[in-house]
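Sample pair:
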Amino acid sequence: MTIAITGATGQLGRLVVEQLKAKVPAGDIVALVRTPAKATDLGVPAREADYSRPETLPAALAGVDTLLLISSSEVGQRSAQHRAVIDAAKAAGVKHIVYTSLLRADTSTLSLAAEHVETEAMLRASGIAHTLLRNSWYIENHTVSAKGAVAAGAFIGSAGDGRIAGATRADYAAAAVAVLTTAGHEGKTYELAGDVAYTLSDLAAEISRQSGKAIPYKDLPPADHAAALASFGLPGWLAAALAEWDFEITKGVLFDDSHALSRLIGRPTTPLSAAVAQALA
């Protein structure tokens, strides 16, 4: 059986390939990437597959049985890009598509949800057997700012006391590998989240504990948070989006206590302390 992974040189994709190689022969894995030359270190065959160039997709998907469709990182272009992949997969005879969606995408108030909902609908309409991995937040989305917070003396955000059931990319990669390598997942939707939810105050306290410096959490109105992020050099649209997504956390959009992720991967999810330690290393 040939398993293909889109976006295989991305942060999640690389982890999936690495973990997948421990379960199946490397020759049965295909890395689908925009630039095959950047995939030589993956240790598996690589094929050119550019979401935005549909003409690259038929050859890329030839002979593929199972496809992990990692959602595109290009917010605003995802629906069209995913449609191209799904259409090509159907034409190529792909039997099963596993898609990385968003936690409770169908009811989420996050602006990110719309393109995931559209993609889920495309998969249903395609007639291809599929599995939805609705991932909560990557802890790394927040811990990437840990060193900057230590340098600045505070961790800023707009999430208030909202609880975030985050997990690491490695945890979500393990879930994908479990679904790709075991039977009985077709037609299922998994709401995947970390075992222990945290607030940004909890995160700041953990950064303080590990760094030995007092790093308080400073909650800001979204407009002020966006302005601060823009002052750090982020594009204005991205700063505004990040602040908006942070504020939505106050509504509980990233909280989940079903423990579906730890059941699927057969172990507890990575604790916040370990993620912070990695970020500060």
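The mean pLDDT is 96.
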